[in-house]
Amino acid sequence: MIAIETSHLFLKETSDEFSEMINAWENDEEIIFFSEENAFEPQALEETKDMLNNILQKEDMIHLVIINKLSNQPIGYCLLACIDKHHQRAKIGITIGSKSEWGKSYGGEALTGLLNYAFDKLELNRITAEVYSFNERAIKLFEKLGFKQEGRIRENVRKKDIYSDEIVLGLLKKEWKGNI
């Protein structure tokens, strides 16, 4: 059981108890605009539960709910995906689903906790993030954490009938400072 604690947050493994909250976030068009490649389509609770069950059974993925310590309420989730132990690499992602918590630095704090876990406990060497070029806040956050822009996949995603680039960012263990 993975549990990560930071100054203001708990990161704990996703379970069925969070499916209703995650379903609400998955049904928020603004949140999905920044986090999903597909066009927005409402998702039934059962679909969210099935999605979470599939995620939780994957051996190469860690999916954690972000809980605000003060309110004891979930505010989002973060994940490591495509964990490759041989090459010591993974992809990272985050969604702050509670819009009232946007702009409070919780994303950086959660990612810092997850990056410390990835580099120290999992002994990974490289973490990659893929961010849509119009998501300037996310790009700035990853760069603040030390990620370097490594590439641009031109017109890789279509959102509201507009093609956008996807920015590939990478962070190596030797570059990680351990805090934001």
Count of helix runs: 5
Mean pLDDT: 92
Question: Biggest sheet, open or closed, and with what strands and sense?
Answer: 8 strands, mixed
Do you know the CATH topology of one domain? Answer: Aminopeptidase
Helix/strand/pairing class, anyone?
Answer: alpha+beta
Poorly predicted segments = none
For the record, the CATH architecture of one domain stands as 3-Layer(aba) Sandwich
Question: What's the level 1 CATH class of one domain?
Answer: Alpha Beta
Strand fraction: 35-45%
Q: What does the radius of gyration come to?
A: 16 Å
DSSP, total strands: 8
Which geometry do the CA atoms define? globular
Oligomer: single chain
Query: Can you identify the CATH superfamily of one domain?
Result: Gcn5-related N-acetyltransferase (GNAT)
* DSSP helix fraction: 25-40%
Adjacency order of strands in the biggest sheet: 1-2-3-4-5-6-8-7
| SSE series | EEHHHEEEHEHEE
Termini separation: 25 Å
Topology:
Blueprint lengths: L2 E3 L3 E5 L5 H8 L2 H7 L9 H13 L4 E7 L4 E12 L4 E8 L9 H16 L4 E7 L3 H9 L3 E12 L2 E11 L8
Parallel strand pairs: 5-6
Antiparallel strand pairs: 1-2, 2-3, 3-4, 4-5, 6-8, 7-8
Helix pairs in contact: 1-3
